[in-house]
Design a protein that fits this description.
- By secondary structure, the protein is α/β, with parallel strands linked by helices.
- The chain folds into 2 domains: about 240 residues, Nucleotidyltransferase, domain 5, CATH 3.30.420.40; about 210 residues, ATPase, nucleotide binding domain (Nucleotidyltransferase, domain 5), CATH 3.30.420.
- It is about 40% helix and about 20% strand.
- The protein contains 18 helices and 19 strands.
- The protein has a 7-stranded mixed β-sheet with strand order 15-16-14-13-17-18-19, with helices on both faces. A 6-stranded mixed β-sheet has the order 3-2-1-6-12-11.
- A hairpin with a 3-residue loop joins strand 1 and strand 2.
- Helix 9 packs across helix 16, helix 12 crosses helix 14 and helix 14 packs across helix 15.
- The chain is globular.
Length: about 475
């Protein structure tokens, strides 16, 4: 019986998940959950990273108190692109800045005035997103040039937490691949960085998923009353870990990691960088075993979550189930939004932003919050169809099934809408995909599993799935034509 601890940090919350493996089945148990609350200070949006490390310690303490201190390994995954800056003493030079901070507004245009966008894409294969690490660092060259003279290393969020635990500095491949600073062959894009005034010696060595970073430091072992535990660089980008857990039966599947963000893509052996991927803004990110995750980044359930947050402040809170039950009774395709419109990117006043989009596009405005919910879910399902069709155009064949993993598996309405919209079966599960993938990476690193194929067989034995069959496809076809005009 092997026990492993997975730390899964999302943009709004984090968990410590205990995985128990008996050689045939993997069981998960949540031992600690906490909110992840960014803080606005003097106009800058920060992550409270020291509190996040404190919560990591609390997860370990709770494991010990529950009699599960005999851990064989632990690993951490987080969201992508964000990073901490360390000086020559290994001390933080400030809290990491949130990817939704305003410092990267208009930065893509400034970068592309120095280096043509097509040249950046040819080298990195990474889609242009305003929050990419490349633009965050370039913004610092414009606003805080003196800072670079004090930087010894930058570490992405999971690498930073691993450093706090072990004292070892390294950058895992999948998390680095979100930055738009990695060449398609897996090394740093030094030429691009130098032309933008970003020093190339501030980045740590790139290591593969499944590498042991080091052991928990002695002082932390004493503080937490644990033995020395190996800290494993899992597929540290949360989507990369989620993809590890996809229980696919055929190699030509597509996946949808459904949560605050929706990441819809395929797992391939090599990057795809051509006119079509560039024009459609598809990204090539790293996967476990140096696989490529060719995907489209979609705004996801963020819009819904922000609406619920606003409604709960203004009136009595309803559960997600209650909201969706009432939304299903509203008229279908009454109004549609483009979930990726930039108006929906920043936090706050989301219901008002939806009304503005609908007015500006000549549509009806909602009469109640349930019409808004239905609008969001239908629009997401149609966006998934558009993104899946883009994938099929790129790879040149029909994709037979869409696997949905992550918290969005629990959204029954959205999953059925997705099947209806794409006209293909949708298979959901596991719900705890990221934590599951994190633990699978640890089992491979420790030699308990041989490869991804064996890991995915373990997922099939351990967790239930659910299949949705498409229906009402003619109505969805009509709605799709309307949606494309947006």
């Amino acid at each position: 019986m092997m026990k492993l601890l997975a730390f899964d940090y999302g943009a709004s919350s984090g968990r410590a998940i205990l995985g128990t493996y008996n050689g045939d089945k993997l069981d998960l148990k949540e031992v600690h959950r906490f909110s992840n609350d960014p803080v606005m200070v003097n106009g800058t949006f920060y992550w409270d990273v020291l509190r996040l490390f404190h919560e990591m310690k609390q997860g370990i303490i709770k494991c010990v108190k529950q009699g599960n201190g005999d851990l064989a390994g632990m690993g951490t995954d987080t969201w992508g692109v964000d990073f901490g800056i360390l000086d020559s003493n290994g001390d933080l030079l400030g809290n990491p800045v949130h990817y939704r901070d305003a410092r990267t507004v208009d930065i893509i245009e400034k970068v592309c005035s120095l280096i043509p966008g097509r040249e950046i894409y040819e080298q990195t294969g990474t889609a242009f997103q305003v929050f990419n690490t490349l633009y965050q660092l370039f913004s610092l060259t414009l606003s805080n040039k003196t800072l670079f003279s004090r930087i010894s290393k930058i570490l992405f969020m999971p690498d930073l937490l691993n450093y706090f635990l072990t004292g070892s500095m390294a950058t895992e491949y999948t998390i680095a691949s979100t930055s738009q600073m990695l060449k398609a062959d897996g090394g740093w894009a030094d030429g691009i960085l130098r032309r933008l005034g970003i020093p190339t010696d501030i980045f740590a060595e790139i290591i593969d998923s499944g590498t042991v970073v080091g052991n928990v430091k002695n002082d932390i072992c004493e503080e937490l009353n644990i033995n020395s535990v190996p800290v494993i660089a899992v597929a540290e980008h949360d989507t990369a870990s989620a993809v590890v857990s996809v229980p696919a039966a055929c190699p030509s599947y597509a996946y949808l990691s459904s949560g605050t963000w929706s990441l819809l893509g395929m797992e391939l052996d090599n990057p795809v960088i051509n006119d079509t991927t560039y024009e459609l803004n598809y990204t090539n990110e790293g996967g476990f075993g140096r696989k490529t995750r060719l995907l489209k980044n979609i705004m996801g359930l963020w819009i819904y979550q922000e609406c619920v947050r606003a409604w709960n402040k203004a009136s009595e809170a309803l559960s997600f189930d209650e909201m969706e039950e009432k939304a299903l009774k509203e008229k279908p395709f009454n109004m549609l939004i483009d979930p990726d419109n930039e108006i929906f990117y920043s936090p706050g006043h989301m219901p008002d932003k939806i009304v503005k989009f609908l007015k500006d596009s000549g549509q009806k405005v909602p009469e109640n919050k349930f019409q808004v919910v239905r609008c969001i879910m239908e629009s997401l399902a149609l966006k998934y169809r558009m993104s899946l069709e883009g994938l099929e155009e790129i790879v040149g064949y029909d994709i037979p099934v869409l696997h949905v993993v992550g918290g969005g598996c629990k959204n029954l309405m959205l999953n059925q809408f997705t099947a209806d919209s794409i006209g293909k079966p949708v298979v959901t599960g596991p719900i705890e995909a990221t934590s599951t993938g994190n633990l699978l990476c640890q089992l491979i690193a420790l030699g308990e599993l041989t490869d991804l194929t064996q890991a995915r067989e373990l997922v099939k034995h351990s967790f239930p799935t659910r299949e949705y069959t498409p229906k009402d496809m003619e109505k969805w076809d009509e709605a799709y034509e309307k949606f494309k005009k947006l």
